[in-house]
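Comment on both lines for my students:
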Amino acid sequence: MHIPDGFLGVPVAASAWAASAGGIGYVSRRAKRELGEMQVPLMGVMGAFIFAAQMLNFPIAAGTSGHLLGGALAAIVLGPWAGSLVITAVLVVQALVFQDGGILALGANILNMAFVGVFTAHVILRLGSRLADLSKGARLAVAFLAAWASVVMAAMACSVELGLSGAADWGVVVTAMGSAHALIGIGEGLVTAAVIAFLLGVRPDLVRLQPARA
Protein backbone atom coordinates (compact mmCIF):
# COMPACT_ATOMS: atom_id res chain seq x y z
CA MET A 1 0.00 0.00 0.00
CA HIS A 2 3.04 2.27 0.16
CA ILE A 3 2.64 4.69 -2.75
CA PRO A 4 5.92 5.37 -4.60
CA ASP A 5 6.80 8.73 -6.10
CA GLY A 6 5.43 9.50 -9.54
CA PHE A 7 1.95 8.07 -8.99
CA LEU A 8 0.26 11.08 -7.39
CA GLY A 9 -0.50 14.39 -9.01
CA VAL A 10 1.02 17.50 -7.43
CA PRO A 11 -2.31 18.83 -6.06
CA VAL A 12 -3.16 15.45 -4.49
CA ALA A 13 0.32 14.97 -2.99
CA ALA A 14 0.39 18.54 -1.65
CA SER A 15 -3.09 18.22 -0.14
CA ALA A 16 -2.13 14.94 1.51
CA TRP A 17 1.02 16.50 2.95
CA ALA A 18 -0.99 19.43 4.32
CA ALA A 19 -3.59 17.13 5.89
CA SER A 20 -0.91 14.87 7.38
CA ALA A 21 1.11 17.78 8.76
CA GLY A 22 -1.98 19.20 10.44
CA GLY A 23 -2.93 15.78 11.75
CA ILE A 24 0.54 15.14 13.17
CA GLY A 25 0.48 18.47 14.96
CA TYR A 26 -2.93 17.76 16.48
CA VAL A 27 -2.27 14.18 17.61
CA SER A 28 1.12 15.25 19.01
CA ARG A 29 -0.58 17.75 21.30
CA ARG A 30 -3.21 15.22 22.36
CA ALA A 31 -0.62 12.50 22.95
CA LYS A 32 1.54 14.85 25.01
CA ARG A 33 -1.39 15.57 27.33
CA GLU A 34 -2.47 11.95 27.70
CA LEU A 35 0.75 9.92 27.70
CA GLY A 36 1.78 8.35 30.99
CA GLU A 37 5.32 7.46 32.01
CA MET A 38 4.90 3.84 30.95
CA GLN A 39 3.55 4.67 27.49
CA VAL A 40 6.64 6.51 26.22
CA PRO A 41 8.92 3.44 26.22
CA LEU A 42 5.92 1.35 25.13
CA MET A 43 5.65 3.52 22.01
CA GLY A 44 9.24 2.62 21.16
CA VAL A 45 8.62 -1.08 21.68
CA MET A 46 5.42 -1.00 19.65
CA GLY A 47 7.10 0.95 16.86
CA ALA A 48 9.94 -1.56 16.68
CA PHE A 49 7.48 -4.47 16.63
CA ILE A 50 5.34 -2.96 13.87
CA PHE A 51 8.41 -2.01 11.85
CA ALA A 52 9.73 -5.59 12.04
CA ALA A 53 6.30 -7.09 11.35
CA GLN A 54 5.87 -4.96 8.22
CA MET A 55 9.01 -6.58 6.81
CA LEU A 56 7.29 -10.00 6.83
CA ASN A 57 5.04 -10.63 3.83
CA PHE A 58 2.34 -13.30 3.63
CA PRO A 59 0.99 -14.63 0.33
CA ILE A 60 -2.58 -13.98 -0.85
CA ALA A 61 -4.36 -14.62 -4.13
CA ALA A 62 -2.88 -14.40 -7.64
CA GLY A 63 0.74 -14.34 -6.48
CA THR A 64 0.38 -11.09 -4.51
CA SER A 65 1.37 -10.62 -0.89
CA GLY A 66 0.54 -8.41 2.05
CA HIS A 67 2.06 -7.38 5.34
CA LEU A 68 0.92 -6.13 8.72
CA LEU A 69 0.06 -2.42 8.82
CA GLY A 70 -0.31 -2.32 12.59
CA GLY A 71 -2.81 0.52 12.86
CA ALA A 72 -5.38 -1.40 14.89
CA LEU A 73 -2.72 -2.94 17.13
CA ALA A 74 -1.26 0.50 17.84
CA ALA A 75 -4.72 1.90 18.60
CA ILE A 76 -5.54 -0.95 21.00
CA VAL A 77 -2.31 -0.73 22.97
CA LEU A 78 -1.47 2.99 22.77
CA GLY A 79 -4.72 4.72 21.85
CA PRO A 80 -5.30 6.64 18.61
CA TRP A 81 -3.09 9.66 19.33
CA ALA A 82 0.12 7.87 20.24
CA GLY A 83 -0.76 5.09 17.82
CA SER A 84 -0.87 7.52 14.90
CA LEU A 85 2.52 8.93 15.89
CA VAL A 86 4.06 5.46 16.04
CA ILE A 87 2.77 4.50 12.58
CA THR A 88 3.97 7.88 11.25
CA ALA A 89 7.47 7.26 12.63
CA VAL A 90 7.56 3.78 11.07
CA LEU A 91 6.52 5.17 7.68
CA VAL A 92 9.12 7.95 7.82
CA VAL A 93 11.94 5.51 8.57
CA GLN A 94 10.76 3.16 5.82
CA ALA A 95 10.68 5.97 3.26
CA LEU A 96 13.98 7.62 4.21
CA VAL A 97 16.07 4.54 4.95
CA PHE A 98 14.53 1.68 2.98
CA GLN A 99 12.90 3.60 0.09
CA ASP A 100 9.61 1.86 0.89
CA GLY A 101 7.19 4.49 -0.38
CA GLY A 102 8.17 7.77 -2.01
CA ILE A 103 9.28 10.93 -0.23
CA LEU A 104 6.83 13.12 -2.16
CA ALA A 105 4.10 10.54 -1.53
CA LEU A 106 4.95 10.21 2.16
CA GLY A 107 2.21 12.63 3.14
CA ALA A 108 -0.38 10.41 1.42
CA ASN A 109 1.05 7.23 2.96
CA ILE A 110 0.91 8.81 6.42
CA LEU A 111 -2.64 10.04 5.80
CA ASN A 112 -3.79 6.60 4.64
CA MET A 113 -2.12 4.35 7.20
CA ALA A 114 -1.39 6.51 10.25
CA PHE A 115 -4.70 8.40 10.21
CA VAL A 116 -7.37 6.66 8.12
CA GLY A 117 -6.19 3.22 9.24
CA VAL A 118 -5.65 4.02 12.92
CA PHE A 119 -8.83 6.04 13.40
CA THR A 120 -11.00 3.56 11.51
CA ALA A 121 -9.78 0.95 13.97
CA HIS A 122 -10.34 3.34 16.88
CA VAL A 123 -13.97 3.97 15.96
CA ILE A 124 -14.70 0.24 15.75
CA LEU A 125 -12.87 -0.40 19.01
CA ARG A 126 -14.89 2.32 20.76
CA LEU A 127 -18.14 0.85 19.47
CA GLY A 128 -17.04 -2.63 20.54
CA SER A 129 -16.10 -1.50 24.02
CA ARG A 130 -19.65 -0.24 24.53
CA LEU A 131 -20.93 -3.80 24.62
CA ALA A 132 -22.37 -4.57 28.04
CA ASP A 133 -20.25 -7.68 28.60
CA LEU A 134 -17.08 -7.84 26.54
CA SER A 135 -15.69 -11.36 26.98
CA LYS A 136 -12.22 -12.33 25.82
CA GLY A 137 -13.68 -13.90 22.69
CA ALA A 138 -15.66 -10.75 21.93
CA ARG A 139 -12.58 -8.58 22.42
CA LEU A 140 -10.63 -10.68 19.96
CA ALA A 141 -13.50 -10.53 17.45
CA VAL A 142 -13.65 -6.74 17.75
CA ALA A 143 -9.86 -6.53 17.38
CA PHE A 144 -10.05 -8.68 14.24
CA LEU A 145 -12.81 -6.53 12.74
CA ALA A 146 -10.99 -3.29 13.60
CA ALA A 147 -7.79 -4.53 11.98
CA TRP A 148 -9.59 -5.76 8.86
CA ALA A 149 -11.53 -2.51 8.45
CA SER A 150 -8.42 -0.38 9.01
CA VAL A 151 -6.66 -2.09 6.09
CA VAL A 152 -9.64 -1.85 3.75
CA MET A 153 -10.34 1.81 4.51
CA ALA A 154 -6.66 2.76 4.15
CA ALA A 155 -6.68 0.99 0.77
CA MET A 156 -9.81 2.88 -0.28
CA ALA A 157 -8.17 6.19 0.66
CA CYS A 158 -5.18 5.18 -1.46
CA SER A 159 -7.54 4.33 -4.34
CA VAL A 160 -9.15 7.77 -4.15
CA GLU A 161 -5.74 9.47 -4.28
CA LEU A 162 -4.63 7.39 -7.27
CA GLY A 163 -7.95 8.00 -9.02
CA LEU A 164 -7.82 11.75 -8.45
CA SER A 165 -4.26 11.78 -9.78
CA GLY A 166 -5.27 9.97 -12.95
CA ALA A 167 -2.76 7.21 -12.23
CA ALA A 168 -5.38 4.52 -12.81
CA ASP A 169 -8.98 4.13 -13.92
CA TRP A 170 -11.39 4.55 -11.01
CA GLY A 171 -13.16 1.25 -11.58
CA VAL A 172 -9.92 -0.68 -11.93
CA VAL A 173 -8.09 0.80 -8.96
CA VAL A 174 -11.03 0.61 -6.53
CA THR A 175 -11.84 -2.97 -7.49
CA ALA A 176 -8.21 -4.11 -7.43
CA MET A 177 -7.28 -2.37 -4.19
CA GLY A 178 -10.53 -3.30 -2.46
CA SER A 179 -10.46 -6.99 -3.32
CA ALA A 180 -6.75 -7.45 -2.62
CA HIS A 181 -6.82 -5.63 0.69
CA ALA A 182 -10.00 -7.36 1.83
CA LEU A 183 -7.85 -10.51 1.76
CA ILE A 184 -4.82 -8.77 3.26
CA GLY A 185 -7.10 -7.50 6.02
CA ILE A 186 -7.91 -11.07 7.04
CA GLY A 187 -4.22 -11.69 7.66
CA GLU A 188 -3.97 -8.38 9.51
CA GLY A 189 -6.96 -9.32 11.65
CA LEU A 190 -5.58 -12.75 12.52
CA VAL A 191 -2.16 -11.39 13.48
CA THR A 192 -3.71 -8.56 15.52
CA ALA A 193 -6.08 -10.93 17.34
CA ALA A 194 -3.20 -13.31 18.07
CA VAL A 195 -1.08 -10.52 19.59
CA ILE A 196 -4.01 -9.25 21.65
CA ALA A 197 -4.77 -12.77 22.87
CA PHE A 198 -1.16 -13.07 24.03
CA LEU A 199 -1.27 -9.68 25.78
CA LEU A 200 -4.56 -10.54 27.49
CA GLY A 201 -2.83 -13.60 28.91
CA VAL A 202 0.35 -11.93 30.16
CA ARG A 203 -0.30 -8.15 30.37
CA PRO A 204 -4.03 -7.40 30.18
CA ASP A 205 -3.35 -3.90 31.51
CA LEU A 206 -1.81 -3.03 28.13
CA VAL A 207 -5.01 -3.76 26.23
CA ARG A 208 -7.31 -0.75 25.98
CA LEU A 209 -10.20 -2.81 24.60
CA GLN A 210 -11.98 -3.32 27.89
CA PRO A 211 -15.62 -3.69 28.96
CA ALA A 212 -17.41 -0.37 29.11
CA ARG A 213 -17.86 1.10 32.56
CA ALA A 214 -21.26 2.27 33.71
Q: What stands out?
A: The longest strand covers residues 57-59.
